[in-house]
Design brief:
There is one protein chain. The chain has about 450 residues and is an alpha+beta fold. The protein has 3 domains: about 110 residues, no CATH class; about 150 residues, no CATH class; about 100 residues, no CATH class. About 25% of the residues lie in helices and about 45% in strands. It is built from 10 helices and 21 strands. Helix 8 crosses helix 9. The N and C termini lie far apart (about 95 Å).
Length: about 450
C-alpha cells in the first residue's frame, strides 16, 4: 500500500454462486472509504463460475404513489430495479470458464469490461454458447430512469434449436426458425431499453442484422405456418425446402422486423420471400413461387400440346402466396387469378411468335382452322387473327370473315383462359403426389 494506492497481489472470494480470483491495483482506497470518492482501479479477474445476478444491486421502491385521472385514482408501487454500482470506475480484464446470465450459460468467456458512471462497457467479449461462438462489443447503462443497451454481436454456427430455446429475442426476431435444424450465422447491431431486471424490452429494439442459415432438415410439425403452407400447396412438399445456404437482411424498427427479399428453392421451384412481422407475431409476408410448367402434369397436356419440349421447359408460372394472421394462427392466400392470366399470356406469346416466323400462309391456315372450329384450345390463333387485321384492306371493315374471326378470337381466348384457370386450380387443389414431367413425352 502506498498512500491511497493499493496493490492487490491476490484476492480470492466466493459470493452466492460465484467464485473470484483477482489481482490488480486500487488507486484511491482512502478517498473511497472516507471522502465518498469513486473506487478506481484496474484488475485481472478469473472465475470458474460467474453469476451476474450476484453483482447487481437491487433498489426496492416502497413508496406508494397515487396517480389521479378524471375517473379514478390508481395506487402504484415501484418495482425492484437492478442498478450498476455508481461508485465504481474500474477496468477488468476478465476470463471465466462459465458465466450465467439470466437463463443462459456462457462458456470460455473472455474480454474487457469497464464500469463507469453506472454503465458497463464490454469490449472484445468472446464466448462459446449453443455449440457456436459469439463476439460482442457494447454497453449496458442503468443511469437514468430507464436502463438502456447498445450492442454489436457476431454469431457463428449457433445451433438453431438451442438458440431458439435459449434466446427469447430469437423467438421474436425469427419466429419460424424453430422448424429448422442446422446452424445460424448472423451479424447483429441493436439498441433499445431494458426492463428492471436488465432483459430487453422487445418493442423498443431497433437495429439491423445480416443472417445466414445453414440448415440440414425441416420439421414442419414444429411450426403452424409451415404446416399450413405444406397442406395448402398440394403439389409440393415443404420438407424439400433447400435452405442450406440462405442469406438475408433484417431491419428492426418500431416493434417490427422487416426482412429484405431473399430466395430459396423447393426442389426446382424458385421462391422469393419478403415482408415483415411484428414482435407481437402478426405477419405480412409474400412468397412469389415460380412454378415450372411440368408440374401441371397430364392436366396440362391439352393446353401445352402445341408447344415443343424446349418451350415448355422455359415456362414458369408466378404464383403469389400471401402469409398473414399471426404465428400462432396463420393464414395462407393464393392469387390464382394472376397465375391463370400469366400462363395464358405466355402460351399466347410463344405461339404468336412461332406463327409470325412461319409467315402469312401459316397465319391464313390458322384462321381457317379457327373458323372451322378446329383446335379450340390453341389460343394463339386468336392473336394471329389480330395480327392479320394489321394488313391494310378497306374490305376488312365490313368483311364477314373479319367479323367472325373477331368474335371467335374473344370466344377462344375465353376458353383458353377458362382451361388455364381450371388447370391452375387443379394444381393447387390436388392431393400431394409426384408431378408428371410433360417434357418426357416430347
Amino acid at each position: 500500500m502506498n498512500n491511497s494506492r493499493v496493490k492487490l497481489e491476490s484476492f480470492n472470494a466466493r459470493t452466492g454462486n460465484t467464485d473470484l480470483n483477482a489481482s490488480g491495483t486500487i488507486n484511491n482506497l482512502i478517498g473511497f472509504l472516507f471522502e465518498d470518492q469513486k473506487l478506481k482501479g484496474n484488475f485481472k479477474v478469473s472465475s470458474d463460475q460467474f453469476d451476474t445476478s450476484d453483482f447487481m444491486s437491487t433498489t426496492t421502491g416502497s413508496k406508494e404513489e397515487t396517480i389521479t385521472t378524471e375517473n379514478k385514482s390508481v395506487a402504484t408501487t415501484n418495482n425492484e430495479v437492478i442498478k450498476i454500482p455508481d461508485f465504481l470506475d474500474a477496468q477488468l480484464d476478465f476470463n471465466a470458464n462459465r458465466v450465467i446470465y439470466d437463463n443462459i450459460t456462457l462458456n470460455d468467456v473472455s474480454g474487457i469490461a469497464m464500469v463507469r458512471d453506472e454503465t458497463l462497457f464490454l469490449n472484445d467479449l468472446k464466448t462459446k454458447v449453443f455449440n457456436g461462438t459469439i463476439g460482442l462489443d457494447g454497453t449496458v447503462s442503468t443511469k437514468g430512469t430507464t436502463p438502456k443497451f447498445k450492442m454489436a454481436l457476431n454469431m457463428n454456427e449457433l445451433d438453431i434449436a438451442q438458440s431458439f430455446q435459449g434466446f427469447e429475442m430469437f423467438q421474436k426476431l425469427v419466429p419460424l426458425i424453430n422448424a429448422f435444424k442446422g446452424k445460424l450465422n448472423t451479424d447483429l447491431e441493436i439498441q433499445g431499453d431494458l426492463s428492471n431486471d436488465l432483459t430487453p424490452v422487445l418493442t423498443t429494439i431497433a437495429g439491423d442484422a445480416f443472417a445466414q442459415l445453414l440448415t440440414d432438415d425441416v420439421d414442419t410439425s414444429q411450426n403452424k405456418l409451415l404446416n399450413l403452407l405444406d397442406n395448402k400447396l398440394g403439389f409440393i412438399d415443404v420438407n424439400d425446402l433447400n435452405l442450406r445456404d440462405i442469406t438475408t437482411k433484417l431491419k428492426l424498427n418500431n416493434g417490427a422486423v422487416e426482412i429484405a427479399p431473399f430466395d430459396f428453392n423447393i426442389k426446382d421451384i424458385k421462391v422469393v420471400a419478403s415482408g415483415k412481422h411484428s414482435l407481437s407475431n402478426s405477419m405480412d409476408y409474400i412468397l412469389n413461387l415460380e412454378v415450372p410448367a411440368k408440374y401441371f402434369g397430364k392436366e396440362g397436356a391439352s393446353l401445352l400440346s402445341k408447344l415443343e419440349s424446349k418451350e415448355i421447359d422455359k415456362i414458369t408460372v408466378p404464383v403469389p402466396v400471401k402469409l398473414g394472421g399471426s404465428i400462432s394462427s396463420p393464414s395462407v392466400d393464393l392469387n390464382l387469378d394472376l397465375a391463370v392470366k400469366n400462363l395464358t399470356n405466355q402460351i399466347i406469346e410463344i405461339q404468336k411468335q412461332k406463327l409470325k416466323d412461319k409467315g402469312e400462309e401459316a397465319a391464313n391456315n390458322a384462321i381457317n382452322d379457327i373458323l372451322q372450329g378446329n383446335n379450340p384450345l390453341d389460343n394463339i390463333k386468336d392473336v394471329i387473327k389480330g395480327d392479320k387485321g394489321q394488313v391494310k384492306d378497306s374490305t376488312q371493315a365490313t368483311s364477314p370473315v373479319s367479323t367472325t374471326t373477331d368474335s371467335l378470337k374473344q370466344n377462344t381466348k375465353d376458353k383458353v383462359k377458362e382451361t388455364a384457370g381450371n388447370l391452375i386450380k387443379d394444381l393447387f387443389g390436388r392431393n400431394k403426389k409426384k408431378p408428371v414431367d410433360t417434357t418426357k413425352a416430347k
